[in-house]
Every structure is written in structure tokens, then in C-alpha cells.
Amino acid sequence: MSALLSKAEKAKVMAYQIEVLMRASDQPDTPEDGAELTNLAFYKAIELRKYLEYLMIEIKSEAKS
To answer: Taxonomically, which superkingdom (predicted)?
Structure first.
């Protein structure tokens, strides 16, 4: 159970990183910086989605045990 809590905490941190990137992209120093920050946030969101899919599979398999 502790391992799942740790993984859930990691997902929370990943979501916060996306939030920070999106906020930074809202008021960038240059338009290029804004585009790069938005791009990074987008890829972090994809990474988070994949991580959550993996985590849900793990939770379901642990619930069956």
C-alpha cells in the first residue's frame, strides 16, 4: 500500500509540474519561450497520462489479490 501511495504522490508532483509550466507559458519573456513552455507542458501531460494508466492497472491487479 505504501508503494501505491508513493506512486500517487509522484503523479501529484507531475501534475504540479504541468501547472507550473502552463502558468509560466501564460506570461513568457518571449513568444518562443511561451511556445517552448507550452510544448513541455504538453509532453509532461502525456507522460502523466501514461503514468496514471500504468498506476490504474497496478491498483486493479492489487485489488484482485
So the answer is: Bacteria
Residue 65 has pLDDT above 80, yes or no: no
Taking the whole predicted model, whether its pTM rises above 0.85 is answered as yes
Amino acid, single-letter form, for residue 21: L
Structure confidence by residue, pLDDT tens digits, 25-62: 999 999 999 999 999 999 999 999 999 999 999 999 98
Cα distances from 35 to residues 27, 30, 32, in angstroms, run: 11, 9, 5
Alpha helices in 1-65 (DSSP H): 2-26, 31-64
Domain enclosing residue 46, as ranges: 2-64
Number of domains in the chain: 1
Query: For residues 10 and 57, what is the distance between their CA atoms, to the nearest angstrom?
Result: 16
To the nearest 10°, report the CA torsion of 43, 40, 19, 44: 20
